[in-house]
Design brief:
This protein is α+β, with helices and mostly antiparallel strands and 522 residues long. The longest helix has 18 residues. It contains twelve helices and 26 strands. The protein starts with 5 loop residues before the first strand and ends with a helix.
Length: 522
């Protein structure tokens, strides 16, 4: 194999984890690092404009996945996943949440994730974080991931927080502080009003290093094995089959969908399933693709009066204002405020996260607003249901079969319904009420239990946080090495045995920061 096609590390996927690995591993000038990304450069103007993130959905910047019909809703669910430099950090809503101490201690204590307890991972959160308001001992101030207070917050978001407090939640100004519980405004991964993805934070500062090579439009089709050792990958270089060698390790950072898919395409996974598709089994590993779960979200929406709507800013004048100042409504991340709380007594940590938006945001924000509106969404963050991912074909260009099994455990449905009742009550109390005109979705907020169940079934969508399909314990060890083979690790959200309570971008970056140390210590 020619020298130019041999590297020490081959990283598959330039998303939230892959960009971190590319930076950290190439800090060693003797390490030759190749980063492969199936999508292209993150050049769309909408990538940098916080309020425009949903306009990237179902475009060339998106893998555009869809689940199978869900048994307990009767619906399929659209799952956007970033397909460009920065991956999902280039299309997400930029909310900076780490999760709860209980999440990581639970990984360690219940799932054998030695070294992944809260006290173990906090230094990596801090290493990554460049927070513009908070500092030690819980926050980092000089890390590459810029975290700031949003440059625009709508009056409805402030009114919702005040109403949630009058309803009974405590106020918080830091969801990543000593306690996660309470209502407040979210901080965002932006820099002076512009999205700050991992491509911005980690990849671009490293691009001048001669030992780092980045190839876009390079979809990996399989991991190449010699016996049970991973020695490289095959990929399509702008459609042309190409193979590259990894002299040290292959690192899969494709996320909770692409990483298990690639393992199975490469012969690592449930043996019977692989044989059914004619794939030679390299290592029988039944956990690959199992344990799939996500944060389901359901909204309650009102039309509004006496105020504005974020959608009003989607005009040429609004764009010019944003381009000149990086302020104004287009600097909003839409999901401006929210809360964490428990829907029932006796929980060790919150089971519910709320996201509120000063506009009509439903069907993943792809519906054109028909009137000024306000959305509050219940997001289940302590998820009991588990699904799985399987291949539909041995053809690597086919999308896999995705089944998160939403509400397969009835407690999930009951928790979401409880939260929706709370959101309706909050809308009737405090300063928010004067802005709310009438129910928009559902059409009435006087809901029986049966009507509320039907609303959940009709309107559940993803909060874009799938995890678990290459979990620590069942698929990888605590060093993120894949069981049954050598020279291969998975470094992304798929290794999380349980989804953290909150948005998953910061935890994914933490996983990659810690993984870089594990890899360098090999």
């Amino acid at each position: 194999m020619p020298e130019q096609d041999s590297f020490d590390y081959v990283i598959v996927g330039a998303g939230s984890a892959g960009c971190v690995l590319a930076n950290r591993l190439s800090e060693d000038p003797s390490a030759r690092v190749l980063l492969l990304e199936a999508g292209g450069e993150d050049t769309a103007d909408e990538v940098k404009i916080p309020a425009a993130f949903a306009s990237l959905f179902k475009t060339k910047w998106d893998w555009n996945y869809e689940t199978v019909e869900q048994k307990h809703t009767g619906k399929t669910a659209y799952w956007p996943r970033g397909r460009m430099l920065g991956g999902c950090s280039s299309i997400n809503a930029m909310i900076y949440i780490r999760g709860n101490r209980a999440d990581y201690d639970g990984w360690r204590d219940a799932h054998g994730a030695t070294g992944w307890g809260w006290d173990d991972v906090l230094p990596y959160f801090k290493r990554a974080e460049g927070n513009q308001r908070f500092g030690g001992p819980l926050h980092g101030t000089d890390g590459p991931l810029h975290v700031e207070d949003r440059r625009f917050t709508h009056e409805l978001s402030h009114a919702w927080v005040d109403s949630a407090v009058s309803w009974g939640l405590k106020h918080t100004d830091d969801f990543n502080g000593e306690s996660q519980e309470g209502a407040g405004l979210y901080q965002v991964t932006c820099k002076r009003g512009r999205r700050w993805s991992t491509a911005d934070a980690y990849l671009r500062p490293a691009l001048e290093r001669p030992n780092l090579t980045v190839r876009t439009n390079a979809q990996v089709t399989r991991v190449v094995f010699e016996g049970t050792r991973a020695v490289g990958v095959s990929y399509l270089d702008k459609g042309v089959p190409t193979t590259v060698r990894a002299d040290a390790e292959v690192l899969l950072s494709g996320g909770a969908i692409n990483s298990p898919q690639l393992l199975m395409l490469s012969g690592v996974g449930p043996a019977e399933h692989l044989r059914e598709l004619g794939i030679d089994v390299v290592a029988a590993l039944p956990g690959v693709g199992d344990n799939l779960h996500d944060h389901p979200a359901v909204g309650v929406i009102w039309s509004t009066k006496g105020t504005t709507d974020i959608a009003d800013s989607a005009t040429p004048a609004g764009l010019v204002r944003y381009q000149l100042t990086k302020r104004g409504p287009l600097a909003s991340n839409i999901g401006e405020a929210g809360a964490f709380y428990s829907t029932r007594d006796g929980l060790a940590a919150p089971d519910m996260q709320i996201h509120v938006a000063p506009t009509l945001f439903y069907d993943n924000g792809m519906r054109e607003p028909t009137c000024p509106g306000f959305t509050s969404a219940a997001t289940l963050v302590d998820v009991a249901s588990r699904g799985r991912l399987r291949l539909k074909s041995a053809n690597p260009l086919w999308k896999p079969e995705i089944d998160p099994a939403y509400y397969s455990e009835s407690i999930d449905l009951e928790s979401v319904k409880s939260a929706l009742r709370s959101l309706i009550e909050i809308g009737r109390s405090g300063p928010l009420a004067k802005f709310l005109d009438r129910p928009f979705l559902p059409a009435t907020h006087e809901l029986s239990d049966e009507a509320l169940t039907e609303h959940v079934r009709e309107n559940t969508q993803t909060l874009y946080h799938p995890v678990g399909t290459c979990a620590i314990g069942s698929v990888v060890d605590p060093d993120l090495k894949v069981h049954g083979v050598s020279g291969l690790r998975v470094v992304d959200a798929s290794v999380m045995p349980v989804v953290p309570r909150g948005n998953t971008n910061a935890p994914t970056i933490m996983v990659a920061e810690k993984a870089a140390d594990l890899i360098r210590a090999r």
